[in-house]
Design brief:
- This protein has about 260 residues and is of the alpha/beta class.
- The protein has two domains: about 10-190, 3-Layer(aba) Sandwich (Rossmann fold); about 200-255, Helicase, Ruva Protein, domain 3 (Orthogonal Bundle).
- The protein is about 35% helix and about 20% strand.
- The protein is built from eleven helices and nine strands.
- The strands form two sheets. Strands 4-3-2-5-6-9-7 form a seven-stranded mixed sheet.
- Strand 5 (about 100-105), helix 5 and strand 6 (about 125-135) form a beta-alpha-beta unit.
- Helix 6 crosses helix 7 (about 150-160).
- The longest helix has 13 residues, at about 200-210.
């Protein structure tokens, strides 16, 4: 079979280490997660370890050359191959209301957007794992109090247990990226119904970190909150000092009733 050329514009770095690919595939509990979606399979290095273990494997790949390669390598009964952009995909057209797990060696140029889409569909996605650029992996798993802690950290950890598993060097990819990579896994928490307005929570978290060097009093200024509320001591903190639970409490105190248009 003709080899697939990695494409820089798609952020492709094909994993070549079979041992690492197997470790990623083994993160899935196949008895608990029957439906699996692999994002960006490329040449199928990870796919080969997923195929024998699940009867409901779906692959989404934007690269036409990779699609043709996978079609020749596997027959249609082994996997459901979708050509398209995961970020534009309506997941309900594939899975309906069923739950499914997401796994992959994620393209680095869209990895953060992939996480946000998983969070938007968290009700259907109990498990999410794979390879990220190390910097992004650290942000997802970082606890409060550091410069790495941010929007991805807060929102991911509110709904999932995040685990940084191991670091991966550039030499196991073709072409080698200029940075280290890391494998992480996210397991959805049992109770993900938060005691606040989740739309407002997302807005508060994102506004807070858009100007992360400023205190919440300044970064949330666009909400036009009442003076007496803004004088509360929590508004004198910077966002990296707040845990997910702190942001929930902050959101409840703000409430839409206190926002002036």
């Amino acid at each position: 079979m003709k080899n697939v050329r990695p494409k820089k514009k798609l952020g492709q770095h094909f994993l070549t280490d079979l041992n690492i690919a197997k470790k990623i595939a083994d993160l899935l509990d196949y008895s608990a997660h029957q439906n699996v979606l692999e994002i960006g399979p490329g040449t199928g290095v990870l796919t080969q370890y997923l195929v024998p273990k699940t009867a409901a494997l779906h692959l989404i790949e934007v690269d036409e050359e990779s699609i043709h390669f996978l079609q020749k390598k596997y027959n249609s009964e082994e996997l459901n191959l979708i050509q398209g952009d995961f970020l534009k995909l309506d997941l309900k057209t594939i899975f309906g209301a069923k739950t499914f797990s997401v796994i992959g060696n994620f393209p680095y140029n869209i990895s953060s957007q992939i996480v946000f889409k998983v969070l938007e569909n968290k009700i259907q996605i109990p498990f999410f794992a794979g390879m990220f650029q190390k910097e992004v992996a650290e942000r997802i798993c970082e606890p409060p109090g550091s410069k790495k802690y941010g929007i991805l950290s807060v929102l991911s950890q509110l709904y999932y247990k995040t685990e940084y598993l191991f670091t991966v060097p550039p030499i196991v990819f073709n072409p080698p990226p200029k940075v280290d990579s890391a494998v992480i896994k996210l397991t959805r928490k049992e109770n993900i119904s938060l005691d606040c307005d989740e739309t407002l929570l997302n807005k508060v978290v994102k506004l807070s970190f858009q100007q992360r060097r400023k205190t919440l009093r300044n970064s949330l200024k666009s909400l036009n909150l009442p003076y007496n509320l803004r004088e509360d001591s929590i508004f004198g903190l910077r966002p990296e000092k707040l845990s997910g639970d702190d942001f929930i409490q902050l959101t409840k105190r703000i409430g839409y009733g206190n926002i002036s248009n």
